[in-house]
């Protein structure tokens, strides 16, 4: 395996961009198709191309989800698509093949992460950097960054806490928000990502102060404003050819006086884009109607009734307002446009000496504004968000209160009715975009910001063990100790016999929250054979048979940004939180007794640690034992490290768990079983996950049941599900809007426990 060597020649740099949801391809982007296929898609595609053009970058891979759905183009089912020299889209399988809205992807992100890592391991180079886009990609990026030992860079694009505030203000109930949008899981992922990211790239200063400032892991020193670029070869002033474009004829068929200037509004049909208020302002101003025509380009549609309910509502309101104000002949609202025609729309409006307007309630950046500016089109834009910086840099337009119809009308008339002022605004915009918003300038600033991070990149951990690979071992069983193997001596004896009968093909591993000495003692007491791999202390230690050789490479890997004394000093002052005895502490595990009657909630403790810039994993078991371990340490991460070192596919790893501490072992590509013990309610949220089997039997009998279920020593796979007709994209969208198809999000921080059966000792570990 070739690692990314930052001391080698610069072109060896391999950058991976992650953007999981939506539809990505290298041509004719379907921007505005739905809420998931907006400006973020274009931003990430253009970023990949701009970075790949640099001489100090060898390869840029954009990882997104592979979608094989008869309702959409087959382009999205192509595993690898080149999008320019040194840049390509890599599509990763995750979950069902059909297109899903982002709110329904959360249960499939661990599979995405596992498959992405497998792809990288099989390639000829590993990345020097992971750059995630949006919360779902951040969730994946945290895991890939931890496993590869490379920096994580993140761009949020849209933030859950901001959206939740807005929805609450609009009257949507908290439980509806969480169910429909999986908001708790999204915000938890954002907090985890902000804690792990070495750099957060934003578009505006306001985004840092007013949006990221809402998060516990708000660290402005790790945040940098690098505005997106625009393609100056594509977006340019009109040259006359736009007058012959088919899209111009499409607009003209709506308009009685086509020579009037055009007021152009271009966005997806989203309530936050506030197009209805623009139509009301136009409809209530006879002067504005005499001066200009209005063009509304709001996504693509064949049949309004087939669109998701949110877009359907927005477009219906627009059509009703056009009818109310009798604006026929003065407003154009085409049903279709291609991505290649967007630049022509700006040019057509500029040639008419018109104006571009973005009346959104809030606009994190405003990519359409710099596209309009690059086309020589003055702008009028909301005073909330990115337009503030754009107009400050370019001096090419007017900011407006998006809820004030008179303010909108006044600004539009001021631009449209002053010919010399219009020319100055257009010229200022062209100059400002070249200076501040070219993609080449963005790539320069990007690589300059990454310089200090890339210098610190270390090769991923490799176990320095002089051990012979176990011949023919192409599968493995990993099990918790107390919750799975203890409690039923008869089924344990059967399990041990099955292991011994299949030692030639299967590796045996134990993953426990216990210390090494405690685990060995309990195994000796119950006659459990010494495993090939022993993962102890909640994934912070790994030992190999036959001499219990410790993996020092793993130890160095998880030591990244681990500050146990700061954790101890911060939590010891809390009511209801008391340090456990020294025998329960270790280099990578800080342990406390937790009194739920007096202690802060786990959410509050997590927030406190985040605010202190401590990125860790919290584990609460049995409601009374609280452990804090490094962010790179867990049973699941340790298992994946071992599987990678030994060349065992995750799809051939059977993971048996009985409590919340085992959850991250079981998510993703591993085969898994939840045995029927009294603590498996902590894992009940996994019940609908395809590759997780809920056994009817407890303890080792449950593992034996799963061995039969997966035909583990033969086929070793999830048994085929009964044939079911997949839901159409429309049905998925409609069910998502009603909240019926969304999964209930996890509550607060991860409740995983690293502790075992409390009957075995006063304080199990």
TrEMBL record:
InterPro entries: Glyco_trans_1 (IPR001296), Glyco_trans_4-like_N (IPR028098), HAD-like_sf (IPR036412), HAD-SF_hydro_IIB (IPR006379), HAD_sf (IPR023214), SPP-like_dom (IPR006380), SPS (IPR044161), Sucrose_P_synth_Pase-like_dom (IPR012821). Keywords: Glycosyltransferase, Hydrolase, Transferase. The keyword Glycosyltransferase applies. It is an enzyme of class 2 (transferase). It catalyses: beta-D-fructose 6-phosphate + UDP-alpha-D-glucose = sucrose 6(F)-phosphate + UDP + H(+). Residues 38-234 form the Glycosyltransferase subfamily 4-like N-terminal domain. Gene3D superfamilies: 3.90.1070.10, Glycogen Phosphorylase B, HAD superfamily/HAD-like. Residues 723-765 are annotated as: Disordered. It comes from the Bacteria. SUPFAM superfamilies: HAD-like, UDP-Glycosyltransferase/glycogen phosphorylase. Residues 756-765 have a biased composition (Acidic residues). Residues 730-745 have a biased composition (Polar residues). Residues 475-711 form the Sucrose phosphatase-like domain. Belongs to the glycosyltransferase 1 family. This is sucrose-phosphate synthase. It comes from Thiorhodovibrio frisius.
């Amino acid at each position: 395996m070739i690692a990314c060597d930052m001391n080698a020649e610069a072109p060896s740099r391999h950058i991976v961009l992650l953007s999981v949801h939506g539809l990505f391809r290298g041509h004719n982007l379907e921007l505005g198709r739905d809420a998931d296929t907006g400006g973020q898609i274009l931003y990430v595609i253009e970023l990949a191309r701009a970075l790949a053009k640099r001489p100090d970058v060898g390869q840029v891979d954009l990882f997104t989800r592979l979608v094989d759905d008869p309702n959409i183009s087959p382009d999205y089912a192509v595993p690898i698509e080149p999008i320019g020299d040194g840049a390509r889209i890599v599509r990763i399988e995750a979950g069902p093949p059909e297109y899903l809205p982002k709110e329904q992807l959360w249960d499939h992100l661990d599979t995405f992460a596992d498959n992405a890592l497998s792809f990288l391991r099989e390639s000829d180079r590993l990345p020097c950097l992971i750059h995630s886009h949006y919360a779902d990609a951040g969730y994946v990026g945290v895991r890939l960054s931890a496993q590869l030992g490379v920096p994580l860079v993140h761009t949020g694009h849209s933030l859950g806490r901001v959206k939740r505030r807005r929805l609450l203000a609009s009257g949507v109930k908290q439980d509806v928000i969480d169910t429909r949008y999986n908001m708790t899981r999204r915000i938890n992922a954002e907090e985890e990502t902000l804690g792990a990211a070495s750099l957060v790239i934003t578009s505006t200063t306001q985004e840092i102060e007013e949006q990221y400032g809402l998060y516990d892991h708000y660290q402005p020193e790790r945040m940098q404003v690098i505005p997106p670029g625009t393609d100056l070869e594509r977006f340019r002033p009109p040259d006359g050819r736009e007058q012959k474009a088919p899209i111009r004829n499409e607009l003209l068929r709506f308009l009685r006086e086509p020579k009037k200037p055009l007021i152009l509004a271009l966005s997806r049909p989203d309530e936050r884009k506030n197009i209805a208020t623009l139509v009301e302002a136009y409809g209530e101003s006879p002067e504005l109607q005499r001066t200009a025509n209005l063009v509304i380009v709001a996504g693509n549609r064949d049949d309004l009734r087939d669109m998701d309910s949110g877009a359907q509502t927005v477009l219906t309101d627009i059509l009703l307002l056009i009818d109310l104000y009798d604006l026929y002949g003065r407003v154009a609202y085409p049903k279709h446009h291609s991505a290649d025609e967007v630049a022509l729309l700006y040019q057509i409006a500029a040639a008419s000496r018109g104006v571009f307007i973005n009346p959104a309630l809030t606009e994190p950046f405003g990519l359409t504004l710099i596209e309009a500016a690059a086309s020589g089109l003055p702008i009028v834009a909301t005073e909330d968000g990115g337009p503030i910086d754009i107009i400050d840099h370019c001096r090419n337009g007017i900011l407006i209160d998006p809820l004030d119809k008179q303010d909108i009308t006044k600004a539009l008339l001021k631009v449209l009715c002053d010919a010399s002022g219009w020319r100055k605004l257009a010229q200022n915009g062209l100059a400002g975009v070249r200076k501040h918003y070219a993609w080449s300038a963005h790539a320069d600033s990007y690589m300059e910001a990454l310089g200090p991070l890339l210098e610190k990149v270390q090769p991923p951990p490799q176990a320095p063990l002089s051990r012979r690979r176990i011949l023919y071992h192409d599968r493995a069983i990993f099990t918790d100790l107390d919750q799975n193997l203890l409690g039923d001596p008869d089924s344990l004896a059967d399990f041990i016999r099955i292991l011994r009968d299949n030692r030639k093909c299967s590796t045996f591993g134990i993953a426990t929250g216990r210390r090494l000495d405690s685990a060995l003692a309990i195994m000796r007491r119950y006659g459990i054979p010494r495993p090939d791999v022993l993962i102890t202390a909640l994934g912070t230690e790994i030992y190999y048979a036959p001499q219990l050789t410790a993996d020092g490479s793993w130890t160095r890997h998880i030591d990244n940004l681990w500050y146990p004394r700061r954790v101890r000093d911060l939590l010891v002052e809390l009511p209801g939180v008391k340090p456990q005895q020294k025998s329960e502490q270790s280099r990578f595990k800080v342990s406390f007794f937790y009194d739920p009657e007096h202690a802060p909630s786990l959410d509050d403790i997590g927030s406190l640690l985040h605010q202190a810039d401590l990125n860790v994993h919290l584990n609460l078991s049995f409601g009374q034992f609280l452990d804090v371990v490094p962010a790179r340490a867990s049973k699941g991460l340790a298992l994946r490290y071992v599987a990678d070192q030994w060349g065992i596919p995750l799809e051939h790893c059977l993971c048996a768990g009985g409590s919340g501490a085992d959850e991250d072992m079981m998510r993703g590509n591993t085969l898994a079983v939840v045995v029927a013990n009294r603590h498996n309610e902590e894992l009940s949220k996994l019940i609908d996950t395809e590759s997780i089997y809920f056994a009817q039997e407890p303890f080792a009998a449950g593992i034996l049941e799963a061995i039969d279920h997966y035909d583990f020593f033969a086929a070793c796979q999830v048994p085929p599900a009964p044939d079911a007709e997949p839901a159409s994209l429309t049905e998925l969208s409609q069910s998502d809007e009603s909240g019926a198809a969304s999964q209930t999000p996890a509550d607060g921080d991860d409740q995983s426990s690293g502790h075992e059966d409390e009957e075995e000792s006063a304080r199990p570990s």
